[in-house]
Amino acid sequence: MKKNTLAALILTTLAAGQLASLQAHAAGQLNVWEDIKKSAGIKTAVSDFEKQYNVKVNLQEMPYAQQLEKLRLDGPAGIGPDVLVIPNDQLGGAVVQGLLSPLSVDQAKQDAFTPASINAFRMDNALYGIPKAVETLVLIYNKDLIDKPLDSLQAWLDYSKTQREQNKYGLLAKFDQIYYSWGAIGPMGGYIFAKNDSGGFNPQQVGLIPPAPWKPSPS
């Protein structure tokens, strides 16, 4: 890799081809990092890309959680990847450090993703990646204790208080961690930082505990 700034493309981008084709043509090869034991899932995409653009794709497995840290070391040395996988919550730091370059993606391709997933890779109105996978949380309940899931957090809180009186627990959730608590905050209109006019975030406007009634995040 000859550039210090890298495009944070997801691996399925190889199937579409256009996003990485210019850099691949210039270098004659494309260096791709995929998660451990995940490379088999993109072999067809790699083969199609090589045939369409006549470039060699060097596929290397790299632990998902370590890719960005290794990029910080390998990128400046010119031996980093052209395509890698990172979680979207690490995007901001990577952009500020100059590790990623913005992408030019056809609007039709962007529209193939849900707004929440594609916008997770935007910063200051620039797109730096394409979503590979979207995760969500599920509620598991014991039918021996309740007939059906309760329909509000207040109901769960009341139920939990009753259970605690019996030295039991009603709802176990890691709500002290934003990854887990966002499922309760976001649907109610909460947000971490409001958006500014340039598409970035306004750290002066926090929406985790906005005054009632709850309102959607400004955008």
TrEMBL record:
<dbReference type="Pfam" id="PF13416">
    <property type="entry name" value="SBP_bac_8"/>
</dbReference>
<dbReference type="GO" id="GO:0015768">
    <property type="term" value="P:maltose transport"/>
</dbReference>
<protein>
    <submittedName>
        <fullName>Maltose/maltodextrinABC transporter substrate-binding protein MalE</fullName>
    </submittedName>
</protein>
<dbReference type="InterPro" id="IPR006059">
    <property type="entry name" value="SBP"/>
</dbReference>
<dbReference type="GO" id="GO:0030288">
    <property type="term" value="C:outer membrane-bounded periplasmic space"/>
</dbReference>
<dbReference type="GO" id="GO:0042956">
    <property type="term" value="P:maltodextrin transmembrane transport"/>
</dbReference>
<dbReference type="GO" id="GO:1901982">
    <property type="term" value="F:maltose binding"/>
</dbReference>
<feature type="signal peptide">
    <location>
        <begin position="1"/>
        <end position="26"/>
    </location>
</feature>
<comment type="similarity">
    <text>Belongs to the bacterial solute-binding protein 1 family.</text>
</comment>
<keyword id="KW-0732">Signal</keyword>
<keyword id="KW-0813">Transport</keyword>
<dbReference type="GO" id="GO:0055052">
    <property type="term" value="C:ATP-binding cassette (ABC) transporter complex, substrate-binding subunit-containing"/>
</dbReference>
